[in-house]
Amino acid sequence: MSSMAGTLRPLVAGNWKMNGTKSSGAELEAISAGYDDALQGKIDMMVCPPATLVMAFAAMARDAALAVGGQNCHANESGAHTGDISAEMLADAGATAVIAGHSERRADHGETDDQVRAKAEAGWRAGLMAIVCVGETEAERDAGKTLDIVGGQLAGSIPDGATAQNLVVAYEPVWAIGTGRTPTTDDVAEVHGMIRERLTARFGGEGEGMRILYGGSVKPGNAAELMAVDNVNGALVGGASLKADDFLGIAAAYR
Ligand code: PEP
Asked: Is the pLDDT of residue 1 over 70?
């Protein structure tokens, strides 16, 4: 447990997944408006829309301090990779961060720790902050393997050279994503404590300064309890980030 971790500036990031069209700009406007001076004084907020909306959202969010991130990137800068998007393209569109290794990418696209690590490095190459996701499946938790699995993902997915500025870790138990189920606060504390220890062991003071987000069915009703857990430095929010009221209701845990 780190004394510094409690003082880190929290990040509340929304992962819109494959949701949103131009008409969703109204929701982004509402999020921007709700991210007022008081909240800006306390936390960072980010929306990661589908790639088709990154440029428009980044333009809209520019004056509101709200950051815009990508949900994924290819490891290469350019080339013959039909349908893929590079970190440089996300940066060019106005993104300042990219999610790497979300469990849906690991499951749907078979992304390995090596590939996730390469994507995080690609993000850095383009000047983006990488949000690296880790988390166990329900079967792995039931088998008592949570710390082993998450520890292995951490070791394999985070590149050397990670700093408190260029890396955020998101702990997202796969079984808690989109299910309405969450771990107990004791379970969250155990995993986040282990992540902090590993980050500090590997990256020293930089590891103490890295933010560790919790993700998985965070809602306005449970955010305050989850965000109060030791070494929880914010949230990665899926479904509840699509509606400004819900997303801002989660951020309100920090008011
Ligand atoms: C996510 O997929 O990053 C996530 C946390 O989803 P949800 O909040 O919908 O569980």
From this structure: no
Decide whether any atom of ligand 1 lies within 6 Å of the 2 Cβ: no
* 84-135 confidence digits (pLDDT tens): 999 999 999 999 999 999 999 999 999 999 999 999 999 999 999 999 999 9
For residues 215 and 171, is the Cβ–Cβ distance under 8 A?
yes
Q: 178 CB under 6 A from ligand 1?
A: yes
Instruction: Choose the residue to mutate in 19, 131, 177 for probing ligand 1, maximizing ligand atoms within 8 Å of C-beta.
Output: 177
Q: Which atom of ligand 1 is nearest to the CA of 241?
A: 8
CA 121, distance to chain mean position in Å, is: 16
Please state the domain count of the chain. 1
Are 133 and 172 in contact by the 8 Å Cβ rule? The answer is yes
pLDDT for position 53: 98
102 noted as active-site residue? yes
The parent domain of residue 29 ranges over 5-254
